[in-house]
Write a structure and sequence with these properties.
With about 900 residues, this protein is of the alpha/beta class. Helices cover about 45% and strands about 20% of the residues. The strands form nine sheets. Strands 7, 8, 9, 10, 11, 12 and 13 form a seven-stranded mixed β-sheet that branches. A four-stranded antiparallel β-sheet has the order 6-5-14-16. A four-stranded mixed β-sheet has the order 27-26-29-28. β28 (about 795-800) and β29 form a beta hairpin. The longest helix has 29 residues, at about 630-655. It is globular, with a radius of gyration of 37 Å. It starts with 12 loop residues before the first helix and ends with a helix. The model has no long low-confidence stretch (mean pLDDT about 95).
C-alpha cells in the first residue's frame, strides 16, 4: 500500500478510465427488480469539441449518475450526439470550397456521402473528450440522431402528426437566414438592439398634389409595398383612408387603409406595408387582402423586380436607394433610431423575413398538456423560478416551422405526384401514387429542423416506437441537466413530444445550470478570444481539478465565472487529500484489518471526527438529493481540508508515534482508515480518478470505488457534546497561537498558559484532554487557575467562556521585542509620510489613473492600521 510522493493525475486518470470501461462498470442491463435511474445526455453537435459549457453540463450529470449508481440504482446514462444540420453542412461546404467545388456541382447523393464521411472522421472527437472528463456513460448504447433507430422514430412521429392534421404545409412568412440559406424557427432568431436610421419618405396621393409622409427602417423593401396603413383613430389621416397612393420609383397604385395594429405615435403614424418581408405586415396583408411581392432573394440579394437594383446585396441597395430617393426629393428626413434586429443564432447574419412554402407543426394542442405537467409538478424545474419562464413562453407559443432548406438531416417523408398533384406522406418510401397510380413522383427536398429529432431524444434512444424492455425500465428518465439557454429550443419540445408519443413525461426534474463566463463575467466566444479550452485544463491539472472547480462554483440556474485561481484552489485541494492519504499509508505498516476498537478506546478527538464525518455524509446526501451539488462539494472540501487534515491528523500524531501504547496506535489507524475510505466514497462522484487511485491503495473491500456502496447515514455516530467540547478546545488553541504570534514568541518554545473557567464541566474536559493544547498550541505547563486575582504581566483573551492568560516573563525578551517594534514603527511612519506627500501632489492626482490613486489610498489606510497595532503593543510592553 503506497502512492507516489507527488500528485500527478496524468499518471493514473487514463488508466482508471480504461479499467472502468474494460469491466463494463458504466453499462446497464434491464433488471426489472432493481430501481432505475436514467439520464439522457444533451447530445452535443457532431461538429463540436468540448467547451466549458459541455464540461459543466457533463460533470453535473456524471456526479448524479455516479451517486445513484453507488446507491444501488440500476443506472443508465445514455450518450450520443446530434447531427447538427446547419453546422455540419457548413463544415462540409467549407471543405468542398477548398477543393474548388460545391454541393450543387457534386449533387445531393455525393454530398451526403461526404457528410457521413465527415461524421465518421470527426464525430468521435467530442466523445473521446467526454471520456477524458471522466463521464461514466453507457458507451455500449451510444446513439446518433440520424442512426437507423432514431430515423425510424422521426419518420413515425412526422407521419402520425401529419395524419392527425398537426403537421401541415403552407405559405407563411418565416425567418430566413441568407447565409445558411434556410428557414429558421422563431427561437432560432436572436434579437439585438442596434443603432439604425428612420427614413421619412413621401408617397403621393393619386390625382392630387398631396403627399403622405411615412417612416421606415428598411427603405430597400419599398419595391414590395402593397399598401400604407394608419391607425383608425388617428385624426391626421381620417380624410385619406380609402384613398390610393402612388409608390415612388415604381409607380404602382397602393391603398391607404386603417388597421388597429398601427402605433400612431411611431414616426409619422403612417407605415408602409410590405407583406412579403415583415411578419406584422404579413398579418395586416392577410386582413386586407394585399398582394405579397417578394423583392429580396433567398441569398439576401435584390430580386429581378427591383429594376437597376436587381442582384445587389440588400445592404448595398439601401445605401444606393437612399441616395436616389434624396436626389429625387422623395426622402424628407433621416433620424437616428435604435431598434431590435433579428440575427441567426448560428451564423449571426441579419435574418430576412420572407414568404415561402414551409412545413409547420400546430403547437397549441401539444402545448396544453405540457403546461399542465409542469403546473401540476409532474415535472419540476430546479431552480423553481424557471417554471414561470417556461409557462409564459408556452402560453404564447406559435406554430413551429420545421422545414429547413438543407441536404444534411432527416429528409421530410413527403412525395409529390407530378401527374395528379397529390401530396403523399408515408412511413416507407413511395414509388407509386396511391391516387392516380402514376410513377412520376418527387420527394420533398427539405429536411427537418435538427430540434425535431432532438425533441424525441429521451424515448427514441430507447427503441421507440417499439415498446422495448429498455424503454419500459428507463423511461421516463429521472432528470434532464441542461443550460437555461435551450429551455425553449429543446426542453419544452421534449416535454410536448414525450407526453404525445412516449405516453408519459420525458423526465421528472429539469436541473438548470447557468453559463460558464470569463473572469470579467463575459460570455466566452471566439470573437473575444476569451474561451478557455477544458481539454488544456485537464492536460495541465487533471480532470478531477476541472470537475471540482466547476461544481464548487455552481448554484442551480446561475452563471459562474472562470478564475484561474479557482482551478489552482481545486488542484491544491487534490494535493491536500493526496498528502493526507500518503501520511496515513506511511503509518499503516503494522495495520491490523481485523482490529475493531471498543467504545472505551475512543478519545474525544476520535468521537469528534466520527461525528463530523457523519454530519458531513448526511449533508452531502441531502444536498445531492436536492441538486445542490455545489454545496455538497463545498461541505466535503471543508471536512477534508479543515477538520480531517488540519485538525484530526495533527491531533493524533502523538498517539500514532507512541511506541508504548500499541492499542492506541491501532485505534488511530482504524479511525484514519475508516474516515478516509468513507470520505473517498463521498467524494468519488465529484473527483472519480483521484478517489479510485487512493482507494485502491488503502484498506478496502470490492473491485472499484465506483461500484462500492454509497455511505449510509450513521446517526449513531453523531455526538453533539463531543463536537461542542472539541470546538471549544480548537478555538482556545487558535487563540493561544494568535497570542504567541502577536508577541513574536519563538515558534518551537513551549509557553506557560493559565486557563480560568466559569463552567466546571468544561474545565474537566480540558483537564482530561490538556495534551491537545500542548501539541497544537505549545501550551506547557497548562495551569488551571482558581483564584480571583488575575495573573500579572500576561496577555489575556476570552473565548467561549474560557479565560486565557499567556504570561510573557520568560517567553519573550521585552527589551528585544520593544526595539524590534520601535524599528517597525519608524518604517511605517516613513511609508505614511511618503504616501501623504504623493496623495497631496496635485500633478499625481491629475495624471495617475483612478485605479492607481485608489490603490495608494488603500496602502495608506493599511499602513495606518499597522502603525496603530504596533503602538498598542508597545504600550502594552511598557507595562511589563
Amino acid at each position: 500500500m503506497d502512492i507516489p510522493k507527488v500528485y500527478n493525475p496524468q499518471e493514473f486518470e487514463k488508466k482508471w478510465y480504461e479499467f472502468w470501461e474494460k469491466n463494463h462498470f458504466f453499462h446497464a442491463e434491464v433488471e426489472p427488480d432493481k430501481k432505475p435511474y436514467s439520464i439522457v445526455i444533451p447530445p452535443p453537435n457532431v461538429t463540436g469539441q468540448l467547451h466549458m459549457g459541455h464540461a459543466m453540463d457533463n460533470t453535473l450529470q456524471d456526479i448524479l449518475i455516479r451517486f445513484r449508481r453507488m446507491q444501488g440504482y440500476n443506472t443508465l446514462w445514455m450518450p450520443g450526439c446530434d447531427h447538427a444540420g446547419i453546422a455540419t453542412q457548413a463544415k462540409v461546404d467549407a471543405a468542398l470550397r477548398e477543393e474548388g467545388t460545391d454541393r450543387y456541382q457534386i449533387g445531393r447523393e455525393k454530398f451526403l456521402e461526404r457528410a457521413w464521411a465527415w461524421k465518421e472522421k470527426y464525430g468521435d472527437r467530442i466523445m473521446y473528450q467526454l471520456r477524458m472528463l471522466g463521464s461514466s456513460c453507457d458507451w455500449d448504447r451510444e446513439r446518433f440522431t440520424m442512426d437507423e433507430g432514431c430515423s425510424k422514430a422521426v419518420r413515425e412521429v412526422f407521419v402520425r402528426l401529419y395524419e392527425e392534421g398537426l403537421i401541415y404545409r403552407g405559405t407563411r412568412i418565416t425567418n430566413w437566414c441568407p447565409n445558411c440559406n434556410t428557414a429558421l424557427s422563431d427561437i432560432e432568431v436572436e434579437h439585438e438592439d442596434e443603432a439604425g436610421k428612420l427614413y421619412h419618405l413621401r408617397y403621393q396621393v393619386k390625382g392630387t398634389d398631396k403627399f403622405v409622409e411615412i417612416a421606415t427602417t428598411r427603405p430597400e423593401t419599398m419595391f414590395g409595398d402593397t399598401g400604407v396603413a394608419v391607425n383608425p383613430s388617428d385624426e391626421r389621416y381620417t380624410d385619406l383612408i380609402g384613398k390610393t397612393l402612388i409608390l415612388p420609383l415604381v409607380g404602382r397604385e397602393i391603398p391607404l387603409f386603417a388597421d388597429e395594429y398601427v402605433d400612431a405615435s411611431f414616426g409619422t403614424g403612417a407605415v408602409k406595408v410590405t407583406p412579403a418581408h415583415d411578419p406584422n405586415d404579413y398579418e395586416m396583408g392577410k386582413r386586407h387582402h394585399l398582394e405579397e411581392i417578394v423583392v429580396i432573394n433567398n441569398d439576401g440579394s435584390m430580386a429581378d423586380n427591383t429594376g437597376k437594383y436587381a442582384g445587389m446585396d440588400r445592404a448595398d441597395c439601401r445605401k444606393a436607394l437612399v441616395k436616389e430617393l434624396q436626389e429625387k426629393g422623395i426622402l424628407l428626413a433621416v433620424e437616428d433610431h435604435k431598434h431590435a434586429v433579428g440575427h441567426c443564432s448560428r451564423c449571426h447574419a441579419v435574418v430576412e423575413p420572407l414568404v415561402s412554402k414551409q412545413w409547420f407543426v400546430k403547437m397549441s394542442s401539444l402545448a396544453k398538456p405540457a403546461i399542465e405537467a409542469v403546473k401540476e409538478k409532474k415535472i419540476e424545474f430546479v431552480p423553481e423560478r424557471f417554471t414561470k419562464i417556461y409557462c409564459n413562453w408556452m402560453d404564447n407559443i406559435r406554430d413551429w416551422c420545421i422545414s429547413r432548406q438543407l441536404w444534411w438531416g432527416h429528409q421530410i417523408p413527403a412525395w409529390y405526384c407530378e401527374d395528379c398533384g397529390a401530396e403523399i406522406v408515408s412511413r416507407t418510401d413511395v414509388h407509386e401514387c396511391p391516387k392516380c397510380h402514376g410513377h412520376n413522383l418527387r420527394q420533398e427536398e427539405d429536411v427537418l429542423d435538427t430540434w425535431f429529432s432532438s425533441a424525441l431524444w429521451p424515448f427514441e434512444t430507447m427503441g421507440w416506437p417499439e415498446q422495448t424492455d429498455l424503454l419500459k425500465q428507463f423511461y421516463p428518465t429521472n432528470v434532464l441537466v441542461t443550460g437555461y439557454d435551450i429551455i425553449f429550443f429543446w426542453v419544452a419540445r421534449m416535454i410536448m413530444m414525450g407526453l404525445k408519443f412516449g405516453g408519459n413525461i420525458p423526465f421528472r426534474h429539469v436541473f438548470i445550470h447557468g453559463l460558464v463566463r470569463d473572469s470579467q463575467g463575459r460570455k466566452m466566444s471566439k470573437s473575444l478570444g476569451n474561451g478557455i479550452d477544458p481539454v488544456e485544463v485537464i492536460e495541465q491539472f487533471g480532470a478531477d481539478t476541472l470537475r471540482f472547480m466547476l461544481v464548487t462554483g455552481n448554484t442551480p440556474g446561475n452563471d459562474m465565472r472562470f478564475y484561474q485561481e479557482r482551478v489552482e484552489g481545486a488542484r491544491n485541494f487534490a494535493n491536500k487529500l493526496w498528502n493526507a492519504s500518503r501520511f496515513m499509508l506511511m503509518n499503516m505498516e503494522d495495520y491490523d484489518k481485523d482490529f475493531v476498537p471498543t467504545a472505551e478506546d475512543y478519545t474525544l478527538a476520535d468521537k469528534w471526527i466520527f461525528s463530523r464525518y457523519a454530519q458531513t455524509a448526511q449533508g452531502v446526501t441531502n444536498n445531492l438529493e436536492k441538486f445542490e451539488l455545489g454545496e455538497a462539494a463545498r461541505s466535503i472540501y471543508e471536512f477534508v481540508w479543515n477538520e480531517f487534515c488540519d485538525w484530526y491528523i495533527e491531533l493524533v500524531k502523538p498517539r500514532l508515534y507512541d511506541k508504548e501504547n500499541i492499542r492506541q496506535k491501532k485505534v488511530v489507524q482504524y479511525v484514519l482508515a475508516y474516515i478516509l475510505e468513507h470520505t473517498l466514497r463521498l467524494l468519488h462522484p465529484f473527483m472519480p480518478f483521484i478517489t479510485e487511485e487512493i482507494w485502491q491503495n488503502i484498506p478496502h473491500e470490492g473491485k472499484s470505488i465506483m461500484i462500492s456502496a454509497w455511505p449510509e447515514a450513521e446517526t449513531q455516530r453523531i455526538d453533539i457534546e463531543a463536537e461542542k467540547a472539541m470546538t471549544s478546545i480548537m478555538d482556545t488553541s487558535k487563540h493561544i497561537r494568535n497570542m504567541r504570534v502577536e508577541v513574536n514568541a519563538p515558534a518551537g518554545k513551549k509557553s506557560k498558559v493559565i486557563l480560568h473557567f466559569q463552567n466546571k464541566a468544561l474545565e474537566e474536559i480540558y483537564r482530561v484532554n490538556q495534551n491537545y493544547l500542548t501539541n497544537l498550541a505549545s501550551a506547557y505547563p497548562l495551569v488551571f487557575w482558581q483564584e480571583e486575582e488575575k495573573p500579572q504581566n500576561a496577555m489575556t483573551s476570552v473565548v467561549n467562556g474560557v479565560e486565557i492568560y499567556l504570561p510573557l516573563n520568560g517567553l519573550i525578551d521585552v527589551d528585544k521585542e520593544t526595539a524590534r517594534l520601535e524599528k517597525e514603527l519608524k518604517r511605517l511612519e516613513g511609508e505614511i509620510v511618503r504616501l501623504d506627500k504623493k496623495l497631496e501632489n496635485a500633478g499625481f492626482l491629475a495624471k495617475a489613473p483612478a485605479k492607481i490613486v485608489e490603490e495608494e489610498r488603500e496602502k495608506r489606510s493599511k499602513y495606518q492600521g499597522q502603525k496603530e497595532a504596533v503602538e498598542e503593543r508597545l504600550a502594552y510592553l511598557a507595562t511589563l
